[in-house]
Amino acid sequence: MDMTDKVVLITGASRGIGAAAARRFAEAGAKVALVARGSDAIADLAGEIGAERAVAIPCDISRFWEVEQTVQNCVTAFGRIDVLVNNAGVIEPISHMAEADPDAWGQVIDINLKGVFHGMRAALPRMVAQGSGTILTIGSGAAHGPVEAWSHYCASKAGALMLTRMADKEYGEAGIRALSLSPGTVATQMQREIKASGVNPVSELDWSDHIPPEWVAAALVWMCGPDADEYKGAEVSLRDPGIRSRIGVA
Ligand SMILES: NC(=O)c1ccc[n+]([C@@H]2O[C@H](COP(=O)([O-])OP(=O)(O)OC[C@H]3O[C@@H](n4cnc5c(N)ncnc54)[C@H](OP(=O)(O)O)[C@@H]3O)[C@@H](O)[C@H]2O)c1
C-alpha cells in the first residue's frame, strides 16, 4: 500500500501497536502525527522517523479540547489529515464489578470509548470537507464477549465498535471509510499488565502466544487500501488466517 504524502494521525504512538504503526506508515511514505500523553517517547520516535515526516503532539485523548487542538496541530504541520488511527487504550484497573472504583472505571471509558469519539468528532469535519478520509479503530474480541474483571474494557470496546458503525452509517456516503481492527493478543505493555493481574485466562497465556505489533501495523496500512473496502463499517479480525494471508503476515 503506497501512502506517499498521506497524513496519518496515530493515538497511543509512544509504544506497542501505535509505535509499530507509526514506523510502518512512515515506511509506506506517509507523514505521521504521533500522539500520547507522555512526550518523551513520541519525541524520540519523531526524531527517528525524521522531522520532515513526523511530528509529536502530546495529548490526553480523554479531553476533547486537547484532541481538537491536536488535529488542528496536525493540519498546521502537514496541511491535512487523511487517516486517523484510534489506537490509544488502557486496561487497568482490572477488577471485579463489585470492587471496582467507579472513578477509575469511568476513566477507562473516558479513554477507550470517549477518546475514540473525540478523535472522530475532531477529524470528521475536516475529512468530510476534503471528501475523503479513513478512520481506523483498534477493537478487541472483548467487544463481543465478557471477560472476567474487564467490565470497563469490554464495555468500552463494544461501544467503540458501535462508533465505527455509526461513522460509516452517517459519513460513508460522504467518502469516509471507518473500519475496526480486532488484533487478537499482541506482545505489548498491555499484555504485561494483563499477565501481572493473574485474573482470567488471558493472563495465563504465554508471551509466545501473542502476535508482534508489527503484524497489527501491517494490517492497519492494508486497511487504508481498496482491498479492505468490504470491511467498511465493520471489523477486520487478525485472527482470521484468510486476512493474515491477504495482509502478508504469517
Ligand atoms: N495488546 C493486546 O493484546 C491488545 C489486544 C486487543 C486490542 N488492543 C488494543 O490496542 C490498542 C493499543 O494497545 P497496546 O497493546 O499497544 O498497549 P500499550 O503498549 O499499553 O500502549 C498504549 C498506548 O496508549 C497511550 N495512551 C493511553 N492512554 C492515553 C490517553 N489518555 N491519551 C493518549 N494516549 C494514551 C499510551 O501512551 P501514554 O501512556 O504516554 O499516554 C501508549 O502509547 C489499545 O486500544 C488496546 O486496547 C491490544
UniProtKB/TrEMBL annotation:
<dbReference type="InterPro" id="IPR002347">
    <property type="entry name" value="SDR_fam"/>
</dbReference>
<dbReference type="Pfam" id="PF00106">
    <property type="entry name" value="adh_short"/>
</dbReference>
<comment type="similarity">
    <text>Belongs to the short-chain dehydrogenases/reductases (SDR) family.</text>
</comment>
<protein>
    <submittedName>
        <fullName>Putative oxidoreductase</fullName>
        <ecNumber>1.-.-.-</ecNumber>
    </submittedName>
</protein>
<feature type="domain" description="Ketoreductase">
    <location>
        <begin position="6"/>
        <end position="169"/>
    </location>
</feature>
<keyword id="KW-0560">Oxidoreductase</keyword>
<dbReference type="InterPro" id="IPR057326">
    <property type="entry name" value="KR_dom"/>
</dbReference>
<dbReference type="InterPro" id="IPR036291">
    <property type="entry name" value="NAD(P)-bd_dom_sf"/>
</dbReference>
<dbReference type="GO" id="GO:0016491">
    <property type="term" value="F:oxidoreductase activity"/>
</dbReference>
